[in-house]
Write a structure and sequence with these properties.
Blueprint: H1 6-15, H2 28-43, H3 48-60, H4 64-76, H5 84-96, H6 100-112, H7 121-132, H8 137-149, H9 157-169, H10 173-184
Helix pairs in contact: 1-2, 2-3, 3-4, 4-5, 5-6, 6-7, 7-8, 8-9, 9-10
């Protein structure tokens, strides 16, 4: 959702007679409507504080997408004061709830050693696998990328290709690019692999 859609998003909440975002037993359509409103507020650079407040209220109501979004906003400091520790805590809570986006986001942080976390490629790979099992396109792509390069796992190019294909079918551009390189024989990983070892 964009900033231009804010009037429409607010009207949707009124039309559906949605309760406040912190109401635990609110209909799923209402929780999604609050989430979309918060997203337009934050990423449209309209009122990040209100957007974050809505995300956190949704998190309190056990709408886990709100938990993930609040974590990302705090880690990246999107219009609000950066709080990496709290952001990571929220992402860990989302992972504990089995949320694929949370698994991907935390995996990305561990992969890069960001947000105050030590780099841990093995843990990152495990989280990407959990997300991929839920058909999360970016999770599939990262598992495949790790398998191609032997990052956090043993190199297994044969297992990577079906994951790239699945992610590409879900619209992931990076997966499509990887497949194109593999099909054209331009993938650098098919060259000399003796200089790099991967953990078992």
């Amino acid at each position: 959702p964009t900033a231009e859609q804010l009037p429409e998003l607010r009207q949707r909440l009124l039309d559906q007679r949605c309760p406040h975002p912190w109401v635990t037993d609110a209909p799923g359509a209402c929780q999604r409507a609050h989430f979309d409103l918060a997203t337009a507020l934050v990423f449209g650079a309209v009122d990040a504080q209100e957007g974050l407040g809505t995300y956190r209220a949704l998190a309190d109501a056990e709408y886990v997408d709100g938990t993930v979004a609040a974590g990302v906003v705090l880690i990246e400091g999107l219009g609000v004061e950066r709080d990496e520790a709290e952001g990571v805590r929220l992402l860990r809570a989302a992972c504990a709830a089995g949320n694929a986006q949370g698994q991907f986001e935390l995996g990305t942080l561990l992969y890069a050693g960001a947000a105050g976390l030590e780099e841990d490629e093995g843990a990152a790979f495990g989280l990407f696998q959990l997300a991929a099992k839920q058909n999360h396109a970016s999770g599939m792509f990262m598992v495949a990328d790790c398998l191609l390069e032997g990052i956090g796992c043993s190199r297994d190019q044969a297992s990577a290709v079906p994951l790239l294909l699945a992610a590409a079918n879900l619209g992931h551009r990076g997966a499509r690019q990887h497949l194109r390189l593999l099909l054209d024989g331009d993938w650098a990983g098919f060259g000399d692999q003796s200089s790099r070892t991967a953990p078992a």
